[in-house]
Amino acid sequence: xxxxxxxxxxxxxxxxxxxxxxxxxxxxxxxxxxxxxxxxxxxxxxxxxxxxxxxxxxxxxxxxxxxxxxxxxxxxxxxxxxxxxxxxxxxxxxxxxxxxxxxxxxxxxxxxxxxxxxxxxxxxxxxxxxxxxxxxxxxxxxxxxxxxxxxxxxxxxxxxxxxxxxxxxxxxxxxxxxxxxxxxxxxxxxxxxxxxxxxxxxxxxxxxxxxxxxxxxxxxxxxxxxxxxxxxxxxxxxxxxxxxxxxxxxxxxxxxxxxxxxxxxxxxxxxxxxxxxxxxxxxxxxxxxxxxxxxxxxxxxxxxxxxxxxxxxxxxxxxxxxxxxxxxxxxxxxxxxxxxxxxxxxxxxxxxxxxxxxxxxxxxxxxxxxxxxxxxxxxxxxxxxxxxxxxxxxxxxxxxxxxxxxxxxxxxxxxxxxxxxxxxxxxxxxxxxxxxxxxxxxxxxxxxxxxxxxxxxxxxxxxxx
Length: 465
Known about the structure:
Largest sheet: 6 strands, antiparallel, barrel
CATH class of the largest domain: Alpha Beta
Number of strands: 19
Strand content: 15-25%
Radius of gyration: 25 Å
Helix content: 25-40%
Shape: elongated
Distance between the termini: 29 Å
Structural class: alpha/beta
CATH architecture of the largest domain: Alpha-Beta Barrel
CATH topology of the largest domain: L-fucose Isomerase, Chain A, domain 3
């Protein structure tokens, strides 16, 4: 899902006041907008709209952007432009916005004439336009930089990825197979408030539908998946053909139902599967491989965490579902793991990902094939979405390091040890004070700044611990 670049529209704003003074100024500044777009090659796919010189222009260009299913709008002042011509557009805009406070030339020089002054006077148009967005209550990002610089590219890329995640959430559907785990309070929320405030919609999928879909799958699809696994993973010889075929049918069945329901994220709960009576095992390896394909996932019917993994995919790629399992004071780290689900794309490069036969008493079913790996050492970021009541949400984020740590031979599920930059004492004190949940998305890399942009675009309170 994140193999392609975010797609953003460049909204260049000016006015016809200067046409008589500088003939050809519209074409001249349109070429500048195109150069800005070209400079962003590799961080975003840019669609450059015609210069906006009045309200009709603005409304037409923005409609074109929305009809093209872009991820966000990058506003560039081509000259000063009075904000009342775009006020209504921003009030009604459905896409995330970034105001690029830039100008064609980085330096004022003695050689400048009035033409140069006019070409480079976007700063006060940016002030007028930003004021209009603030009055309209529109959340937006601001980037003041030299546009040919690498820093500008990086900041626009960060915003564009945040815009993609925010836009994807507005149409996200999260499938829940069965029901959520009883008594798990930090995953509870008001579904209508989530949909109004952020966009994700909850879709209930009956476990019986999964059973029927599994039974209807052609043997050729099941065999093809098993052959692919043979090539990609180190497969445990103790796994029987029946165990592997049943797991493959579960994975393919889940994905088919998610496609039919338009869901890009989902959650299963072991009790909902176990109590149904029609399943032999839990879909552990299925969750790992579907995350690796770009689906959001969380265990125990946790919609908020599944939506976060989906956002992690859109924001940075390879969102990994996990939780803080235990504290290791000697290494000042947290053992990160879950019952058996984890995105194998975050696995170490120097060890094979293993598909193992794994005894598991939870669910009271037969052994579920499980993908086992250790998380790649290096920088990483944890993020949790907290429902505060009503339409208020908070994101708790921690940056740190996945350690090149000890092996845990008895732990037959994906794992790694994460050392927060603030240490486990400081990190956990702040995490708990802010209501951070126990289901978490992990991404490789330092991404607190990316999550901050995402929160600004969606209206989520951001807390880094």
